[in-house]
């Protein structure tokens, strides 16, 4: 619990189950290398070596403390704020190296970084474009089908009218789009208004 030191807790068994690996000197070396990598990547001027990362109080349940030293300066340890920033910047790379996550590889004094948002396999604009295209196609199909049905209906009415005219049952003419029955000129047509007046006079 020294100044600029950080405690780490690993839950390897919880994360990997039967595929869990043993924490040994090789894993400790990899951890030191990843911290040195994070420090170098965070600051291009950093000359951190693996030997500059010190581990202590390692427990069987895999928890330990580590501190980063700086042998190039009179300062014994690197400021904790710098180490924290480097760890946060490279958290995903460190997690991947040990096949763990923020919940199973915990830096107790360093807050977990937010995982990058999951992007859908299909872009949103492509989904919207597909929906709009489907609506347009559906509208075109509806108009075509409606036009065909209306055309068939007109053809059917025209055929029926022609059949009736051929049989002489009715004669229909169309004026201004309105069907009208034609007058039978031979038989004449009686206007009821004048029929009553004709009956009052004696025929000559």
Order of helices and strands: EHHEEHHEHEEH
| Alpha plus pi helix count | 6
The overall pLDDT average reads: 81
Query: Taking strands numbered 1, 2, ... along the chain, how are they ordered across the largest sheet?
Result: 2-3-1-4
Counted beta strands = 6
Helix-residue proportion: 40-55%
Largest sheet: 4 strands, antiparallel
Draw up the topology in text:
Layout: E1 6-10, H1 12-16, H2 25-42, E2 53-56, E3 63-68, H3 80-89, H4 91-97, E4 105-107, H5 124-167, E5 172-175, E6 178-181, H6 192-199
Antiparallel strand pairs: 1-3, 1-4, 2-3, 5-6
Helix pairs in contact: 2-3
Transmembrane segments: 124-148
Main location: membrane
Keywords: Cell membrane, Glycoprotein, Membrane, Phosphoprotein, Signal, Transmembrane, Transmembrane helix
Describe what you observe in this structure.
This protein is an alpha+beta fold. It has a domain at about 5-105. It contains six helices and six strands. It has helices spanning about 10-15, 25-40, 80-90, 90-95, 125-165, 190-200, and strands at about 5-10, 55, 65-70, 105, 170-175, 180. It has a four-stranded antiparallel sheet with strand order 2-3-1-4, covered by helices on one side. Strands 5-6 form a two-stranded antiparallel ribbon. A hairpin with a 6-residue loop joins strand 2 and strand 3 (about 65-70). Helix 2 (about 25-40) crosses helix 3. The radius of gyration is 47 Å and the shape is rod-shaped. One of its GO terms (cellular component) is plasma membrane. This is TMM27 protein.
């Amino acid at each position: 619990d020294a100044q600029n030191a950080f405690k780490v807790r690993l839950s390897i068994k919880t994360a990997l189950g039967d595929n869990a690996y043993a924490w040994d000197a090789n894993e400790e070396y990899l951890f030191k290398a990843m911290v040195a990598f994070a420090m170098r990547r965070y600051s291009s001027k950093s000359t951190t070596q693996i030997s500059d990362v010190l581990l202590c109080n390692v427990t069987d349940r895999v928890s330990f403390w580590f501190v980063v030293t700086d042998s190039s300066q009179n300062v014994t340890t690197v400021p904790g704020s710098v180490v924290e920033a480097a760890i946060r910047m490279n958290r995903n790379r460190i997690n991947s190296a040990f096949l763990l996550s923020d919940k199973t590889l915990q830096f107790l004094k360093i807050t977990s970084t937010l995982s990058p948002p999951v992007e859908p396999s299909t872009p949103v604009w492509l989904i919207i474009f597909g929906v709009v295209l489907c609506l347009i196609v559906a509208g075109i199909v509806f108009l075509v089908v409606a036009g065909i049905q209306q055309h068939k209906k007109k053809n059917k009415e025209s055929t029926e009218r022609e059949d009736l005219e051929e049989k002489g049952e009715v004669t229909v003419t169309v004026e201004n789009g309105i069907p009208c029955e034609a007058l039978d000129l031979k038989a004449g047509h009686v206007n009821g208004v004048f029929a009553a007046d004709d009956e009052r006079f004696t025929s000559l």
